[in-house]
């Protein structure tokens, strides 16, 4: 079936049973610094949260020079609080701020081919729609899926193109749809030639356990509302990214069981920018719970009441700024390219300070708990400083961490 435009279809009862949820306390100003392990409101009962919502969460802009890695963990990571950091990009990354589509070609090996994701005309990468739009088997029972009548549609499976064609798409030239290099460890794969341009990570992350840095290269893009299970220092290099944020405590207003993923197929078509098609083989056995079950910008009637209770805030990350995006925070991201046509971001991922006990068979997210990385992040020379007991030290038998205190050693990157 041809795929012409995303549709947020289907009806889902807002009275589906829900469990207990971590949430931010309401107060005046910023999000509460209280632990997130408390139970959230039971939205399955015949009452609303309208009287409880007394604040709009705001995100501070803070000069990075006012923080140390230790105070960053204490004030923001340990409290699961996003912050916009100015002056936090490593000096070695500064040349990346002047990248253009043309400079990508100049830096790359000749004849390079890259894997990228085709996007819909509006730049959207995923959306929820009626499963009946897809041919194939719909009687597959996947663990945690509450609404078998819905799928999370993905604009298209990644395709391989020449870097020259990718650059042409950024300029809106040629026979290509919008193409997006959307993370997925691409600095270790298609875009490895740029890896040496981004050594290390923002210094405020030094007390966290580093995983990897991913690169986002595209034009006008829209990443659907979702959350990730990592700590993220998101550096904007070229253009701007607009983040719509909701705290973890809004999860019962957004998630309603796991969603089955369905991958559209992009087909080239002479004289046009190709077509997106729904095919039976696109229905996967993947089921995810980190995507919103409805469009928060245009919620269907069944979800209008829940959507009205979201504590949304919008943050624009400009070139040269770094957004700390904590574990579990919902985010919808709109890319706005520079005049060159390029929008580029680098996200440094770290092991999560918090974790969720969340078997795949469950249709509810679990409570936020402190993970193993929490103790590592709060380590001091005297021992482990534990949040909630100011100045208290917990003795540990763990010795010094072997190798780099950064987790993966930054020097183990490819050479230019």
TrEMBL record:
Domain of life assignment: Eukaryota
UniProt cross-references to PANTHER family, sorted A to Z: HYPOXIA-INDUCIBLE FACTOR 1 ALPHA INHIBITOR-RELATED, HYPOXIA-INDUCIBLE FACTOR 1-ALPHA INHIBITOR
Chain positions covered by the region annotation Disordered: 19-52
Full protein name: JmjC domain-containing protein
Ranges where the JmjC domain occurs: 176-367
InterPro entries: Cupin_8 (IPR041667), JmjC_dom (IPR003347), RmlC-like_jellyroll (IPR014710)
Native species: Durusdinium trenchii
